[in-house]
Specification:
This protein is α+β, with helices and mostly antiparallel strands. It has four helices and seven strands. The longest helix has 22 residues, at 155-176. The two termini are 41 Å apart.
Length: 180
Amino acid sequence: MMDEIDFGRGEVFYKNFDIEPETPLEDQFLDEDMLLVKFNGGQYYLDAGWYLVDGGCFVIKAEGDHRGSVREERAYSLEELKIKLEETVRYIHSIMDEPDEYPYYKNHYPVSPHSENKADQWIGEIEVEWEGKQSEITWDLVQKVEQNWGVDLPQELKNIVFIVMVAARSRANSSMMGSP
């Protein structure tokens, strides 16, 4: 059944669908983590698994990084699961083709060797994400914050502020010149 589903522009990241079509679902060992398909480099994804709600059912979710969970469906049979998966793929493709209300930016930074955060050390990088619709940040504002608060902000935070300023200026310049 899973081989019949066209995920289009999606990339199957994880698949553990060992289902016997002739065996009743309640007699099989089914897991919450059965399928994960990434779309648009992981900006959106389809997540499907078996949950013990409503007497047991498949839950199919379409999620996005900055929109949160955007759709959830339930299926109670393999036939219904196939239909819901195909509908969810079409839905994800439709929102991928819509322009974002607010453009967002994402950068990855290596973790400082001095970081005490064990999760950061384990992952090996820090992801910083922000929306394009934001207030104007300047170095004067950063210095004013440091002065008013009586603290020196960490250099890593200042670097992020600098990147935001550069990205905002770059975006403004390209939109004035007609570039996408």
